[in-house]
């Protein structure tokens, strides 16, 4: 009698996904493909990947520094 019990869904769906489910499925598969492509590219060219990451980090730091400097008021200096 215990062998007759089955838990969970083990088959394939009768209806194909449509609407938001299809879009979510397509998006998930596209993200997986792109992540795999990035992984293969980084594996093939580790120096270029580290240089790219370093360059993006330096650019982000520079932009943050400039935005921080522009937000400081020059009229109210605390050391006067």
TrEMBL record:
The chain crosses the membrane at residues 48-68. Keywords: Membrane, Transmembrane, Transmembrane helix. It comes from Rhizobium mongolense. This is ElaB/YqjD/DUF883 family membrane-anchored ribosome-binding protein.
């Amino acid at each position: 009698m215990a062998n007759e019990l089955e838990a969970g869904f083990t088959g394939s769906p009768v209806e194909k996904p449509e609407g938001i489910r299809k879009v979510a499925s397509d998006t998930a598969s596209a993200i997986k493909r792109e992540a795999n492509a990035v992984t293969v590219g980084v594996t093939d060219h580790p120096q270029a990947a580290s240089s790219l990451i370093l360059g993006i980090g330096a650019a982000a730091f520079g932009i943050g520094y400039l935005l921080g400097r522009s937000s400081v008021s020059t009229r109210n200096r605390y050391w006067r």
